[in-house]
Structure formats: C-alpha cells, structure tokens
Design brief:
heterotetramer, A: Glutaconate Coenzyme A-transferase, nine-stranded mixed beta sheet, 12 strands, B: alpha/beta, Glutaconate Coenzyme A-transferase, 7 helices
C-alpha cells in the first residue's frame, strides 16, 4: 500500500540535500554510503555542515571538493593508514577554503545523537570536562557545552551537551524494503541513534528486499521507514569501506587515496578519475574492474559466515 | 630455535611492555596498532581471560587475524556481542572498564595529552585527528596506558591543547573533577617506561630501553624529568613472546616492522 | 577458558539476592523469569525494592508473598485481564504489609535505565511535568525528580530524573552461553538497558548454547557476559508469559490467577499449589501437565516462523 | 446481508467513533482493547497507510489476529521493526507521532486524567495501575484520543490525582509547559463524543450516542457540561464497518462483547 521511495543516488541527492544543510554522514569506518557522498560532490553542494562521531577519508574527499564549511565531530583521520591531507590543507591553509570544526568526543557525539533520537533536550557526560574542547568553540559558542552542577547533590560538575537533530542523514546498509525499513548488521557504529536523530534519512543499500524479508527478522531493523525519504540500491556502495556479509575493506584503495592526496594535484587527479570522471556507481565499479581486474574485485567479496536462523513463532 | 628470537625491535619491546601492564580478567578497551598487539599478546600469555572491547561496539572478540582498525569486519564473527559506539564506549563511560590505551601528539609531565593541534587551535600549524574516543577513555577507564613517540617536542612542559586530561595540574586536581576513571598509570614510550608519582602525579622515569641511558631520555624530554631511585633498563622481551608476536600476531610484519 | 556460571535458580537466588536489595525484574509482559521470581518467594527474601518500567501479575505474587517493601515503576496491572489484587490489598489495606510505590512513567523509567547503563548521571524528559507524580514521592523525596530550566535557553523547564543502577537484575531470555553472553529476540521491552544498568545480572534461559552459537550472531546479544553472575537453564521459565520462538502466552492461566487472587484465601491457595507446593520449575511443569493435560501444554508451543539467516562474512 | 449488521453494541459504536478520528498516513500509538480495534478498523477502511506503533517497540505491525496486549507475540513476526520500550516510546517522546490513545479512572473538564488513585494518594481508597506510558503519550503525541466510561464520579470537576495532564487549568496553561504534544482532541465516552473549546480548552458535548439525550449526558457529568450549539446524535456505524468489526477484527467477541 505504501509508496515506493526507491530512486537513484542522483535523484535522492538532488531532491533532498540542499546547500547549507546539516548532514549526518552515517557509518563508522564502514557502512559509508560512498555512492551518496560522491553524488553530493558531483552535484557541487555547498556550505554543508557535516557531522558524525568519527570521519574517515570520505570526509576528506568532501572537504577537498569544497562542499563542506563546517564539521561537527570528534575525529577526522584514517587510523593506521595515516592523516587526511585535504582535511589538513583546509584546516591549516584554507585550501580550497577555510573550514571550521566543532570538536567533541566520540561518546559525547553519541550522547548528543541518542538525545536527539529520543527527544531528550540535553545530556550530562563525564567526557570533555577539563579538556580544551570546553574552552574553544568554532561557532556554537556557549551552546556547544555547559558545565553544570549535578542537581542530585553528588557535588560533581558535568559537561552538558545539547541534543543533535541533523536536517538529513545518510548511511549504507545491507538491505531495505521499498518503504525504507532498513536493516544493518555487524558493527552498527553511529547507527541506529544517528539515523533516528535525523529529521529525514536517505538510505543506500546492497539490496532492496521485500517487506516480507524485513518482517521475518524485525529486530534487525534500524529505523522505521517513515523517516526515510529515499532508498537507493547501490551494490558495493560502501567501497572502499566494507559491508559485513557482502565485501571486505579495500585497504589498497584507501592507502592509494591517502598516498595520492598528499598533494593538491594528486588529490585532484584521483578525484577526476574516481568521482568526477564517472557518472554513477555503476561506472565507478566498471572502472574499478577495468583498472584493477576482476580477480582483485572478486577478492573483496565476503566469504559465507552464516548467522543461523532463530524462530520468531508464537 | 630460541636463538632465532633473542633479537627484538623497538616496536616489539613496546608491545611486550604494554602486554605486561594488563592483568588477567581485566576488561580492556583497545585501539589499533601497538595497543592491540600488546593486548593480544597478553591474552595469549599471562592474561587469557581479559575481555577485549573496541569502541566500534565489538566485545570479547576472537578475530582470526589481527584487525587493521577498531571497526575491522574480522572483529565481528565470533564476538560475544556486537553493537555500535554506544555499546563500545557506553561501558567505558559507565566506569566498567579496567584499562584503556591512549596516544597523542604531545604529553606533558602530568600526563595530559594533545591529539588536536600543534600551534594555535584556530590557526594550527599542524592539525591532528581530534579526540575520537580518547577523551572518553581517559575519563572513564580505571587506568590508562599511554603509548608515545619519545621526542623533546612531544614530551612537552605544556601541551598546545588538552584533548585528554591526565592529572591536569597534578596533585589532587584530577580527583576533584570526579571522573569515573583514575588517570594514566604508565607511559610506554619509544625510549622508556615512565610512571606517575602517587602524590604529586608528576611523571618519572622508571626504566630506559636497552641501548639507551637516563641522560638520553632526559635529553629528549621537554622538562626536567625526575628519575626513579631504582631506575633500570627496561626488561628485555623473552624469546617466546617475540616468537608469538612474529609468528602468530603479526606474521606479515605490518604492525611491528620498524626497528 | 572463562569459568562457567551455570547453576540452578535455587543456587542463584541464595547466592546473589539478599534481603533489602534493589532488584530489577526484567521483562515487559513477556520474558519474565518466573523461575527466579518463584524461587525468591520460596526463599522468603525480605524488604526488596523491585523495579521495572511496567509490572504484571508476577509482581503481584511477590507482593502477596511479603518479599516486597518498595516498588519503583510506572504500572502494576495486567491490561485487559484486569487489576492485580495483592497489589491493591497491599496499597489499600496493608495486607500482608504496607508497601510504597515510587511512581514514574514508562519512558522516564527507561530514561533512568538508559542513563544508568551509560553512566549518564541524570536525564531531562518531557514526561512527568504537570502531573501529580512531580508532587508526591514515596521515599526518594527531592531525589525522585527535579524541575530544571533548560541551560541551552529554550525557556522550557524539564523534569529531570536520576540514573537508576539496581543492585541486581534478572530476566528470562531465549539463550545464553555458560559465560552469560545472552541473547533475546522478539520484543526486547525494558532490555537491553535495564540489564546494562544493573550492577549484577542473573539470566534465566530456554537453552544454554555454546559460545560459538552466540558468536555466529553477535548482534543479538543483550549484555556481555562480564556483568552476568549466574546462568540458569529453565525451559518454559517464563510461563505463563511467553518466550518468542518457544511458547505463547498462557492466557487461561493468567486469567485463572487473577480470578483466584481476588480474595486473600484464593491467592494463598493458588500460591500453595503453584509456588510453595513445588520444589522447582521442573516440578511446576510436571504439575501443569498433570493438571491441564499434555495437549494444553503442547498447544502453547511456538510454531515455526524462521528469521532466515544473514551473512556475517568479510 | 446488510440487515445483519444494522444493529450495533455500544462498544462497536465507540470503536467506529475512534476509527473516524484517525487520518490516513498518521503515526498512531495504540494500546489494547477498544483503541486497538478502532485503529485496526481505520486501517482496514479509510486509513490504510497509518503506521501502528506499540509501546513494546513493535512498529508497523501486520498481526494475523487481534493482539491481547501491547506486548502480544503476534505483533512481532511481520513487524517492520521490533525493539523495546525505548523504541516504542522514544518516538513518542521525540514528538514524531500524530495520535495516541488514553484512558483512565477519572477525567476533568480540561481533559486531565487520573490513572493512579481514588482518594488520598498515600492512603488510597482504590489504587489503579499508574501511568504506564499514558503520561508519556499525553506529553508527546500531537493529539490524543481519550476513551472513557461515562459516569458522574469519573467525569469529575477535579480529579483525585493528575496522571496525564490535559489542558491543566485551561486556556494557555498547557501551552506554557512546552510539551512536544498538543493535548487531547476528543473524548469518546460510553455516552457521548466530547471535544475541547479552542480557547478555553474546556470540554464540551459534541454528540450524544443513539438512545441518549443531552440531559442524560449532563446528568452523568460531574460539572456543568457545556453543549455545542450544533449538538447532535453520534453518527451511527455503517453496516460494513460492523461487519468488519465482527467478522475480521473480533470474531470471538472478546473486545466488543458488551452491549
């Protein structure tokens, strides 16, 4: 009965992501909707505030492309793979333009999102206090964090952070039905709270399945469909990140990006090849196979490690 | 056989030193790289019953190879529980965990860590990653183990930015803040093992790594580093531990490659 | 390597539930560990403070038995089945003794438990405000709830409730390994937050399974085993409530309890038969089959409605 | 055929009246009993696209028979999402939902509800269930539908205890509290349909059920009940709706048995 929300990444980004929006970019080192991210870059969206607890090289690409004015996060880096050079160029040298970052911690970002999801206006945390993140604010000023005495008489002062309710969020999950009831397994990362906190959600998935498949295992659903405005089918949509049960991390590709993005020119060349030079995810995958070979592509494919089934009967 | 493992790299020495800091049965939140290798080594030797937790929400994992990131998909199959950041860091914030690992670009004599910037916060000379879970781990874990590159500009009288409070200005300053966690108990650097005075909370040199002297460490520290009366050379890794590191935990040499 | 925590309900209750403790009784109209509840009654535990968002007839039995001095909850009733008479006798007439109830709402109870689970000291909510629950406190006094102005300048005052960290909690789940890594599916109710908020947890399960079964589908785990102090295997341990995938609600039995407990004498007779007159859950089930017949017993068994399997490979 | 369904019970009339209050596409949190039957009836007729949510965390359910409780296991298989109380009531608290159902032992002229006690709170003559999710639903849903047994002592000038605020003292009193939700929009009682004046927020009689008069309703209300200028008889249920109720939603007559 419900209307299908299935559309292409191009349509979803054109329709729902506007210049100046606060956008929750879902995924924690995984489950990143690269199809949506690259489309945002191709459509040259401007003045975005991007937020998530921790960002990796996908944020670096968005920053380099000039889409981003502001970041709300605790981390922009790629762990043992090393620093992100577009982020550093923007923060240190204003290339392509100066950006601002509102620095939180991973947990305090999650506290803001849990609060946002549940309609709780603010949350006291043990984090932040005593750090210079309490002193400096990029643009939120006094509304970034308050120091407040525990009203229940413990004598302790806590850092209190406000709920976060982004205009829109997007993430890559394993599967969804056409109404946007989507399911994610493995590491959930910032989800489900990040998505629940958003006013609207675009979900990109490995597979669109029937409502019946979703209903067979409803505990895996992250978000009821009513908040989802677009469902995009994008196999390997998270590449070079992983999607549990579908494909592994492509470490070589991430390393290649980090190496090439050391210089502005290298970054541009990489982007021209892998983002601006392809029309969509299908062309991207085709180019990947042409460049690295089918054998490499197939080596990313997940092996079978079945969860087994449980009974939902009564 | 044993001869084969009597040499060791600096990275291996540090991994072994980190492993020694973990006691059996402890709940440990571990990051990638050396901390992870150290925790795995502990689990394979004297501490088989530790509970390994990653901020990505993977709890009590049995990965079939060493993960590359805290969200490596290898962590998931076989884990006792898999959630997200709220599960991984919620237990830290609640004060449930014994040990956490920290690192950073700078540390001062009271164990305060900087993972944000070198220079001015608003116009940084170098911008780093930011806190991630570091500040949360520093606030919540009963104690933390810090792993650092030992250079004069990194062991600094004053850090350019406090990302994760150690003992703040020392003495009872941290205690007054009412954190669930107790603060750093040790720094495993590329030159030495350093601990904190129980009252003043000032960092002191406990042992210098083989091949170095007290003076070497002091010369590479940005303040007048206090030295333990019983300062000695850092204990050398037993060959069996080196064997486990090389053959079981890092067979391709990705994490321990540096001499 | 880890030590097995498997024991009987008798052992678990004797060892871990002490007089005067604050006990989180897990389960929301389902997943109720009746095996543990009845054992608490048989062992004549005293002065308990029982808490959970909503209580049903299991609480009524505990109250009638005299185990309970205090209740922290939002609801003690059995929906369309009707009122709970022991609860009413205790609240209205002090039979078997006067009890006190600290009244919250379902959501504010959950807010207290989410906070307790995450080490968040207190939470502001939209609930409670303007109601007489703000005026009256049974024993928490000022520490039940505070009215506090939003520090972020919305101008709104919110009711602020403190984190709840019960001494011990117990629940009935579908399966656990010997270390206490337990899994619950279907309606999760107060779980996982209620269990995570407790200092210690006793879990009663339909089946004890290997650590490998748990590890095959780790997203279903409610709580890591380190907080669990006892694992009790109790097939049909939730009867007359249900356990999804194992058996349905026994509505006749619940209705029978409510009918018979209208009088103190009726209540006592029912308890003598079904609680004090049986040594443990095995005897209880045997008595059930002797009384109502194998056909009735088998009619409760769940039909097969398989979740299907997902892939966790990489 | 149609003749068979021209009669109706009071319960059926109320279920149909409740169903009329729900618009297509709305997100509705429903309890057990009549509200559930009303919502299901709406879904089967004019509002096929409502999203039915239960506080137990079952969202957009397709139960194969009418559930007995908000946590009935029949709700789970086929649901779009199954969580717990945090999922079921979190969306209410966040202000996402359009409609919620409420009930209680007493209601006053400003729609304040009592589900706690008759008599003194500390020494109650009768003790009831307490709030459950009622107060949360009253605070969070855009509007609420109240279903009540219409008796003088239940429709009371002053309730013995406010469990769920309606419009408090009337006028702008509720608005000033800053709840996400807007308050009760209608009371479907066993005698009448009652609504609230847009400014004063005082309850008034909109329609009396077939067989009753304005005076009957006033005589069973504990204050001087205002009456709408266009007061009329409550619309009788169409036979087709009665057929659906009896044959599809409550074939065993459990929920609608009373005349």
């Amino acid at each position: 009965m419900k209307v299908s929300k299935v559309m292409t990444a191009k349509e979803a980004v054109a329709k729902f992501i506007g210049d100046g929006m606060t956008v929750l970019v879902g995924g924690f080192f995984h489950a990143i909707a690269y199809d949506i991210t690259h489309e945002i870059m191709r459509q040259k969206k401007k003045h975005l505030t991007i937020c998530t607890p921790s960002f990796n090289e996908h944020a670096d690409q968005m920053i380099g492309s000039g889409c981003v004015d502001r970041i709300v996060s605790s981390y922009v880096w790629m762990e043992v793979f090393g620093p992100l050079y577009s982020f550093r160029r923007a923060m240190e040298k204003g290339i392509p333009h100066k950006i601002e970052m509102e620095d939180y911690t991973n947990f305090s970002m999650m506290a803001r999102l849990v609060a946002g999801a549940l309609g709780i206006p603010y949350v006291p945390v043990h984090s932040l206090k005593g750090s210079d993140m309490m002193k400096y604010s990029a643009w939120m000023g006094d509304n970034k964090v308050k120091l407040m005495k525990d009203p229940f008489g413990s004598g302790v002062e806590h850092a209190v952070v406000p709920a976060l309710n982004p205009d829109i969020g997007y993430i890559h999950a394993q599967r969804s039905d056409e109404e946007g009831n989507f399911q994610l397994w493995g590491i959930t990362g910032d989800a489900p709270w990040s998505m629940r906190a958003c006013k609207q959600v675009i979900v990109s998935v490995e597979e669109i399945v029937s409502r019946e498949v979703i209903g067979r295992d409803p505990n895996r659903t992250v978000l009821p469909g009513y908040k989802v405005v677009a469902v995009v089918e994008a196999p390997y949509g998270s590449h070079p990140k992983n999607s549990q049960g579908y494909y592994n991390v492509d470490r070589d590709f991430i390393f290649k990006y980090i190496q090439e993005s050391r210089t502005e020119e290298g970054w541009k060349k990489f982007m021209d090849e892998w983002v601006y030079g392809v029309a969509d995810r299908t062309e991207y995958l085709k180019k990947y196979i042409d460049t690295f070979g089918m054998k490499k592509f197939m080596s990313l494919k997940a092996k079978d490690m079945s969860s087994g089934s449980v009974n939902y009967g009564f | 056989m044993a001869d084969k493992y009597t040499d060791f790299t600096l990275q291996e020495l540090m991994a072994v030193a980190a492993a020694r800091e973990i006691q059996d049965g402890e709940k440990v939140i571990i990051g990638t790289g050396l901390p992870l290798i150290g925790a795995f080594l502990a689990q394979k030797t004297h501490a088989p019953n530790i509970v390994a937790i990653y901020e990505s929400g993977a709890i009590d994992c049995k990965p079939i190879f060493t993960p590359f990131s805290v969200a490596d998909p290898v962590l998931v199959p076989g884990a006792a529980m898999q959630g997200g950041l709220v599960e991984g860091l919620g237990v830290v914030h609640a004060g449930d965990l014994d040990v956490g690992f920290l690192g950073g670009a700078q540390i001062d004599k009271y164990g305060n860590l900087n993972a944000h910037v070198i220079g001015d916060y608003r116009n940084p000379k170098v911008r780093f990653a930011g806190s991630g879970g570091s500040n949360d781990i520093g606030a919540g874990c009963k104690r933390t183990i810090v792993m650092m590159l030992h250079q004069k500009q990194r062991f600094s009288e004053k850090v350019d930015f406090i990302t994760t409070p150690g003992y703040l200005g020392g003495g009872k300053e941290r205690e007054k803040m009412g954190f669930p966690g107790g603060g750093p108990s040790v720094v495993v650097s590329t030159m030495a093992i350093l601990r904190f005075h129980p009252e003043t909370k000032e960092m002191y040199l406990a042992s210098y790594h083989p091949g170095l002297t007290v003076e070497d460490v002091k010369a590479n520290t940005g303040w007048d580093l206090k030295v333990a009366p019983d300062v000695k050379e850092t204990e050398r890794p037993a060959p069996e531990l080196i064997r486990i590191l090389r053959e079981e935990l890092d067979p391709t040499g990705i994490f321990l490659k540096k001499k």
